[in-house]
Structures are given as C-alpha cells and as structure tokens.
Amino acid sequence: MSEANFEFDLIVIGAGYGGFDAAKHAAEHGLSVAIIESREMGGTCVNRGCVPSKALLAASGKVRELADAEHLSSFGIHAAPVRFERRKIAEHANQLVKNIRNNLTKALERSGVKILRGYGRIEGTQKVGLRESNGVDRLISAKDIVIATGSDPFVPPGIETDGRTVFTSDEAINLEWLPRWIAIIGSGYIGLEFADVYTALGCEVTMIEALERVMPTFDTDIAKIAGRNLIQGRDIDARAGVLASKVSPGCPVKIELSDVKNRELLEELEVDAVLVATGRVPTSAGLNLESVGVKTNRGYIPIDDSMRVLVDGKPLKNLWAVGDVTGKLMLAHTAAAQGTVAVDNILGKNREIDYRSIPAATFTHPEISSVGMAESEAKEFAEKNNFELGIVRSYFKANSKALAELESDGLMKLLFRKDNGEVLGAHIYGLHAADLIQEVANAVARRQKVNELAIEVHTHPTLSEVIEVAYKQAVAQLKQS
Ligand SMILES: Cc1cc2nc3c(=O)[nH]c(=O)nc-3n(C[C@H](O)[C@H](O)[C@H](O)COP(=O)(O)OP(=O)(O)OC[C@H]3O[C@@H](n4cnc5c(N)ncnc54)[C@H](O)[C@@H]3O)c2cc1C
Ligand SMILES: NC(=O)c1ccc[n+]([C@@H]2O[C@H](COP(=O)([O-])OP(=O)(O)OC[C@H]3O[C@@H](n4cnc5c(N)ncnc54)[C@H](O)[C@@H]3O)[C@@H](O)[C@H]2O)c1
Question: 239, 259, 278: which is the final residue of a domain?
Fold first, then answer.
C-alpha cells in the first residue's frame, strides 16, 4: 500500500542493475513499487554488457588455451588443432542473456514490483510521465522517484557507425562475423576485453589510443606488465597518442589517424572492421530534469553520497539517482550498491556509499583488477594528511599455485599508510585477479590495517598467498620505518 495521495511509494525509471536492485530492495521492505523500462529488462549489463561479453570471453578464452601449443607442451600435452564455431559461441552469449533477463524479470515480479513498459520522464516533484509503446501518455505519482537510466556508447565526432563494419560494443556482443583485420579505438575496459576475444579467435588487431600510453586509466606498473602480455605478446599493433579523427564505414573501412596535439593527419588505414570503444555517455537527455530544476554535468546527474539528486549543491527531497547516469565508477555492482543505498535512505536508514571499497576488474586472460586509490591519488592523499605512503609489490612468480599452472606472470601492488598500516588500495594483474581483489576490497571497506591482515592464514597453495605476501612485506616496511 502506498502513502496517501500517491499511486506508488516508489517509481524507478530504468531497469538495469541500478534500477533492479533499488526496486527489489524497496518491494522486499514493504514499499509499493513500479519500475519503468523502455527497452529490454536488465539494461546494459544483462543485454549488451557484462553478461554477453563475459560469455564471449569464456568461450574465446578456452580457444586461446587449447590453441596455445607451446604452453600445453610444457605440461607434456599435445592437443589436436582447435576448431570452433563462431555461430555457437554467439548463441551461447545470446542464450545466457535470455536466461539472466528472464530470471531477473521474474525476481522483480515475485517481489511484487509492477513492471511498466514505456519511456519515463520527470514531470515536476513526485510525478512521472510515462509514454507507453502504444502512444498513450499518462502521469503517475510516487512519494519517491529513483532515476536509473544508465548510459550509452560514446561515439566521437568524425566517426560514423553503420552497426556492421563500424560498430560499438552494442553490436560487437552479437559476434555476427569475424573480421580478418579489426581496428579497436580505445584501450580501456571494452577495448581490452574485445581485443582478448578477437585475438583468441584469430583476428588481427590494431589498437588506437588517443592518450600518450595504451591502457591510460590503469596503474602504470600494472599497465606495463599487462601490456607486455595482453598487447605486445599478442602481436597487437598498438598506437598511442593518435586520434582516430575520421572513420568511414564500408568495405574496406577507412580510418584517418591524426596527431592528438596539432590534429595533423598522420596516416590512413584500411581495415575490415572498427570497434569504437571510446567510453560511454549518460542517458539523461529526455528526462525533463528541468521540471525540477536539476542541471546535469555533461549529462551526468549530480548526487550526494546518499544518492539524493542535487540542485546547486543542495539535495532535493524525494528524488534519487543511481548507476551510470551519475557517472561514479560506471560498473554494474556500483549501480546495484547505489540502488540499495538510495532505498535504505528512503526507508530512513541514513546510509552513505563507500566508493573507495568498490573493486573493478577487466576480464582479459589473465585478468586485471583494482580497488581503492590509484598511486597518484594515494600520494596526494599522503601529502595532504602528512603521512608517508607505503608501496609493496608481490609477484606471482613466487607463488606455488601460479607456478603449478605455468601462469606465473603477474603482479600485485599494495598501497598503505606507513603511519598506521591502513590499506589504501591494490592493483593486480595475473591469473584470477578479478576474484583475488575481493579480499583486499573487504579490507578497504573495513579500513583494516596490514598488521592485522598479515596474521590471517591463507590456504596453501592458492593464489591468495600473493596477497598474504604483500601484507607481510608491508608489515616488514612498517617495522623498518
Ligand atoms: C561491453 C560492456 C561490458 C561491461 N562489463 C562489465 C563487467 O564485466 N562488470 C561490471 O561491473 N560492469 C560492466 N559493464 C558496465 C555495466 O554494464 C554498467 O555499469 C551497468 O549496466 C550500469 O547499470 P545502470 O542500471 O546504471 O544502467 P543500465 O544498465 O544502462 O540500465 C539503464 C536502463 O534504463 C533504461 N532507460 C533509459 N532511459 C529510460 C527512460 N527515460 N525510461 C525508461 N527506461 C529508460 C534503459 O533502456 C536501460 O535498460 C560493462 C559495460 C559494457 C558496455
Ligand atoms: N569489466 C568491466 O567492469 C567493464 C567492461 C567493459 C566496460 N565497462 C564499463 O564501461 C565503460 C566504458 O568502457 P570503454 O572501454 O568504452 O571506456 P574507457 O573510458 O575505459 O576507455 C576509452 C578509451 O578510449 C580512448 N579514446 C577516446 N576517444 C578516442 C579517439 N577518438 N581515438 C583514440 N582513442 C580514443 C580514451 O583515451 C580511453 O583510453 C568503462 O568505463 C567501464 O565502466 C566495464
């Protein structure tokens, strides 16, 4: 039952991970909830992001492993040449999307959330306009509104997409064909993950990065070792400091590369296909945010750490925003965590999110992961707060499990406070880095110190001992200082 005069206690706009978690959490706590979705239930992650891309990475990863004759022969294994069916790999991803989308939709229905299909917009305080697919437009009221409209791929000016020869991740996840030669623009998460898929499946890859080094958003040490394996080690032709200034679809696709600084034309390339992986933009243009006075920051909705939408820095009552549309760590689990925090505040629990403890991972083979502060950020923090920053490196080549797997190329870098031992961040490249980072993320969430962490017993032989070694090295540094 909703509060007097409102049709619902809560209306959520957008049924991605952020909207899903908010709606489910609210319904499970007795609120009457409606969720509005204009496309497929599940949003980017389920339909065009995490889920299908991880299915492609799983299948192509197996191809890579079985095709690596040198690695297998080190174990004395000799496999027959690998064959794969592109169509079946694509079907695996597609089927997984359908299953997860169905499960998620049923979970919402079971918890009592009303699913409304159509396009939602704000129509003043506590009111939402809903344009249904049959053209009917109606107003609905709710005590609280959560905006969770997510993001879409960013395509820089000068780049024309046709969805077939020049495309973004929205189309790449369908794996409709395998180009002989593909250029990937951008060396962030999407560029790296798809380079992993394409190289495993036999495509030649050129990677184009506008900033001065490839993998510019990753820790420098991690980027160095990861780049050596994931880029140079795979014969990817990587160019940094060049801008893909013009891309014209067709057969072949024509690319103009320009100098980032003076925009002078450097080179023209002709390739079979181009994947544009140059970031994402918030989906907020049609939300009619002006009706409540909200000004976006390049499309991102300003919020505080309780998820309240801000106008001129001050929180609005009853309006909340979560997920990619807020531009904070654009990850599925961030969106979900923000959704829960927003609803807890609606329920009067007074909660704030802790972005520092949210981990991130790139699911390449091997993986890259991180949590907490980057080294530059930690240095600045140390200077401001008058303490010395501790940095230790723990190598996979000293780890029995990694050596047994013949996968010992890996590094963990741990950042901590030398005055009290508190863990500030960690960056890992190596086998199962995505799973390993969780242990450090939990420590960051509890603001734990290396002294207490170093005495915790780790299973032998496991990769988690890489973290144990880092904690012990950090304690040794503390003793010396
Ligand atoms: C290729 C790729 C791989 C990724 N892999 C990972 C990964 O491995 N791990 C990870 O954590 N993150 C990953 N991400 C990021 C992750 O997908 C996003 O961070 C996450 O989906 C954000 O969730 P959200 O709820 O904020 O928005 P979205 O998932 O974008 O959902 C927003 C929903 O709102 C709907 N909508 C928008 N406007 C309206 C409107 N006005 N009315 C009604 N409905 C509307 C949209 O149709 C959409 O369904 C990946 C992204 C991509 C593109
Ligand atoms: N495993 C994961 O968690 C995962 C996987 C995929 C995507 N994501 C999410 O999706 C978001 C988008 O991913 P992404 O890889 O598109 O963005 P990104 O911001 O990580 O990387 C984009 C890269 O493209 C470069 N670039 C931009 N314009 C260019 C141009 N004209 N020419 C050459 N280079 C150019 C940028 O310098 C940058 O390095 C990520 O921020 C992440 O939050 C997460």
Answer: 278
Same domain, yes or no: 140 and 14: yes
Q: Which residues contact 435 (CB under 8 A, 6 or more apart)?
A: none
Q: Does 176 score more than 90 pLDDT?
A: yes
Residue 239 lies in a domain: yes
| Residue 463 Cβ < 6 Å to ligand 1 | no
- The mean pLDDT value of the chain amounts to 97
Residues 146 and 291 in one domain: yes
Same domain, 222 and 181: yes
Domain that holds residue 273: 166-278
> Residue 1 above 60 pLDDT?
no
Q: Which residue's C-alpha comes closest to atom 21 of ligand 2?
A: 188
- CA–CA distance, 165 with 15 (Å, rounded to integer): 30
* pTM, two decimal places: 0.97
Our mutation pick for probing the ligand 2 site, out of 263, 280, 435, counting the most ligand atoms within 8 A of Cβ, is: 280
Q: What does the block give as tokens for 256?
A: 């103009």
- Identify which ligand lies nearest to the alpha carbon of 152: 1
Backbone angles phi and psi of 390, in degrees to 5: -100, 135
Active site residue 460: yes
Domain end residue (candidates: 278, 300, 318): 278
CA of 279 to the centre of ligand 1 (A): 13
Considering the domain architecture, whether residues 272 and 285 belong to the same structural domain is answered as no
Do 293 and 274 lie in one domain? The reply is no
Q: Which residues 6+ apart lie within 8 Å of 135 measured at CB?
A: none
pLDDT in tens, 128-159: 999 998 899 999 999 999 999 999 999 999 99
Mean pLDDT (whole number) for 99-114? 98
* Predicted confidence band of residue 235 (pLDDT cuts 50, 70, 90): confident
Binding site, annotated residues: 54, 120, 149-151, 186-193, 209, 279, 324, 330-333
Query: How many structural domains are present in the chain?
Result: 3
- Model pLDDT, residue 478: 94
